[in-house]
């Protein structure tokens, strides 16, 4: 069964498996002890730290191992903010950061701090000048991912880092998605990553803090990992994580070229074979293995279930695939379509034949889901007689409000409006995105007795 969700968790690399089994026999003792078993464990820990630091591009004594990438993010943000509390309590971050960064920002605000979300363009990238403009005299820390976890867009880390340096603000880079593919651009002050993203075992994160960065670890003080990560080290997993990171980096050049070609094929073929689809993310400055696209008039959860029935494992940022019924904050920040969203992230070793079969299956699956939902069949629109129409989609989840809009847009005259009443959060994103794709004008959102009134003007 083809597994196409490496951005969530990559399959365990064979080197990681071998190193994990070996370390279970050799690295079970306390590396802080001076007897023989402890010294042996210490040697394994030191070697793992050196290997990870080499991949990160930092000194071994600047890097600690944590219990996860999320823990590394939380510890890094909290420690940097505390270390620079005399400067101020303002935090800058991009609007498309991983949820761990957003959760840290929310906790910081609840504790009396403040933060600014820097907007992104439709590809998901920040403008370095705009990011620099968000830095203030009281900014204690800036955060920017190296590449986005949902759409694959690479961020201009070096340019943003230069702006941060000019402002005297340290930059924390979340490199969870990119570290397995290559080193992060220069200029960062703190860096975090997660082993299960590159084929290491789950439960190992990295936190690197450059020398000279003011940092005050939060929580009860501990003796291990320079006091920055409490608890007994999971040495077998750490050894496996470091070994697999070295292995995937040695394979990255060849494998990234091969996967990039497969992703390029997905991007082009999906746009050709699936009507009403939007391929999102930067087509050039992106991770080599990841592509995301959204399909009009499609329920994302049903689409994923149907692909799973055909033995393809993919993920989605659609609101209908989450318990919150709120579309992905990444897609929302980009202003792109969220309904029928599919993220394909290919693990190393993916066969081209599996990608070809996916591209053969997908158009039929999308068409089947659209037919089930009663989506309109694409056809030329003729001018309708109505001056305006109101569509009541209250209590109905996307893509239904968009489907109902598409069904009636041809019934109003050019220049007339259709008002869609909807209380689904996704409608705020998907109705404007539909207008962008269909060449119609999204007039805006107006208050209503229930939900919101989304006004669309027919232009053609």
List keywords for this structure.
single chain, alpha/beta, 7-stranded mixed sheet, 4-stranded mixed sheet, 14 strands, 38% helix, 18% strand, globular
What features would you describe in this structure?
The protein has helices at 14-26, 36-56, 69-83, 99-110, 128-133, 157-167, 235-273, 300-309, 329-334, 352-373, 400-408, 427-438, and strands spanning 63-66, 90-94, 114-118, 139-145, 171-174, 190-194, 205-209, 277-280, 290-295, 341-345, 386-392, 412-422, 441-447, 452-457. It has 460 residues and is α/β, with parallel strands linked by helices. The strands form 3 sheets. It has a 7-stranded mixed β-sheet, sandwiched between helices. The chain has a 4-stranded mixed β-sheet with strand order 11-12-14-13, covered by helices on one side. A 3-stranded antiparallel β-sheet has the order 8-9-10. Helix 1 packs antiparallel against helix 7, helix 7 packs across helix 10 (352-373) and helix 8 (300-309) crosses helix 10 (352-373). The radius of gyration is 24 Å and the shape is globular. It starts with 13 loop residues before the first helix and ends with a strand. The relative contact order is 0.12.
């Amino acid at each position: 069964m083809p597994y196409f969700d490496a951005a969530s968790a990559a399959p365990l690399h064979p080197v990681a498996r071998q190193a994990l089994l070996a370390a279970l026999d050799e690295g079970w003792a306390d590396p802080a002890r001076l007897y023989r078993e402890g010294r042996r464990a210490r040697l394994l820990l030191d070697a793992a730290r050196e290997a990870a630091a080499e991949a990160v591009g930092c000194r071994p004594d600047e890097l600690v191992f944590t219990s996860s990438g999320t823990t590394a993010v939380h510890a890094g943000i909290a420690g940097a903010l505390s270390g620079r509390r005399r400067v101020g309590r303002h935090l800058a971050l991009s609007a498309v950061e991983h949820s761990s960064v957003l959760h840290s920002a929310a906790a910081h605000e609840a504790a009396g701090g403040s933060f600014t979300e820097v907007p992104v363009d439709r590809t998901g990238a920040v403008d370095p000048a705009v990011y620099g403009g968000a830095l203030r005299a009281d900014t204690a820390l800036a955060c920017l991912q190296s590449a986005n976890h949902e759409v694959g867009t690479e961020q201009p880390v070096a340019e943003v880092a230069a702006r941060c340096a000019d402002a005297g603000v340290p930059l924390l880079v979340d490199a969870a998605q990119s570290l397995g593919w290559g080193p992060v651009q220069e200029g960062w002050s703190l860096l975090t990553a997660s082993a299960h993203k590159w084929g290491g075992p789950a439960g190992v994160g990295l936190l690197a803090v450059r020398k000279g960065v003011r940092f005050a670890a939060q929580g009860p003080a501990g003796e291990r990992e320079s006091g920055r990560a409490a608890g007994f080290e999971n040495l077998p997993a750490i050894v496996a994580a470091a070994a697999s990171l070295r292995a995937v980096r040695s394979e990255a050049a060849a494998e990234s070229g091969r996967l990039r070609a497969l992703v390029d094929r997905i991007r082009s073929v999906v746009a050709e074979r699936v009507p009403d689809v939007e391929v999102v993310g930067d087509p050039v400055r992106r991770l080599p293995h990841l592509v995301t696209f959204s399909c009009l008039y499609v329920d994302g959860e049903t689409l994923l279930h149907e692909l799973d029935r055909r033995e393809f494992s993919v993920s989605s940022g659609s609101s209908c695939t989450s318990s919150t019924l709120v579309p992905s904050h990444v897609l929302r920040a980009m202003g792109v379509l969220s309904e029928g969203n599919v993220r394909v992230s290919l693990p190393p070793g993916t066969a081209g034949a599996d990608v070809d079969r996916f591209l053969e299956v997908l158009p039929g699956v999308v068409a089947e889901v659209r037919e089930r939902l009663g989506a309109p069949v694409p056809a030329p629109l003729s001018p309708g007689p109505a001056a305006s129409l109101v569509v009541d989609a209250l209590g109905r989840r996307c893509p239904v409000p968009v489907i109902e809009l598409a069904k009636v847009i041809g019934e109003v005259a050019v220049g007339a409006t259709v008002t869609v009443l909807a209380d689904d959060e996704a409608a705020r994103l998907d109705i404007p995105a539909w207008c962008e794709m269909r060449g119609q004008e999204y007039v805006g959102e107006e208050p209503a007795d229930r939900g919101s009134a989304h006004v669309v003007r027919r232009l053609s």
